[in-house]
Amino acid sequence: MNLVDWRDAPLSDAKRVLVIGCSGAGKSTFSAALAQALGLPHIPMDRDFFWLPGWKLRDRAAIRRMMAEAAAGERWIMDGNSAGTLDIRLPRTDLVVWFRLSRWLCLSRVVRRWWRHAGTVRPGMAAGCPEKIDLEFLRYIWNFEKNETPEITGQIEMHRPDVPVVVLRHYADADALLARLKTPV
């Protein structure tokens, strides 16, 4: 994997950026800010591909078709997980930003998000999908590094071993990366 320090992230050349990481890591918030800073369209996968009203998961074939259409675009920032669809997104990606924060931090952010948006649809989520939390979702977050990271790493190695991958382990690094875009070089 082509790991790149966030200070050396090739942002000025990136036209298609994939932001991945555990639920609650801040992918959507970061992606929206990055999209604004770079003047790229922001595509939240949960909102645009996965969920229909009532938390009904869209048909897998439809998800893959819609994702392929979006990935074929010339410019985008796409945030979300789904290691099983990296084969569609990675070949078109110029840069991967991977949030790898502690499980405790991700869990606490998901609980705060649920508390803040309970009973309502949060920004960036599909219409008709009010914020919810359950034991299955909490387990997914707790086991994300163990269960998802090997597949993500394998998909990167298989489909784009040359793509620059910036791993962010602290919010301070994400904030500094965004601040770098606002500072003239």
From TrEMBL:
Top-level taxonomic group: Bacteria
PANTHER family: DNA TOPOLOGY MODULATION PROTEIN FLAR-RELATED PROTEIN, YALI0E33011P
Record-given protein name: AAA family ATPase
Organism of provenance: Neoaquamicrobium sediminum
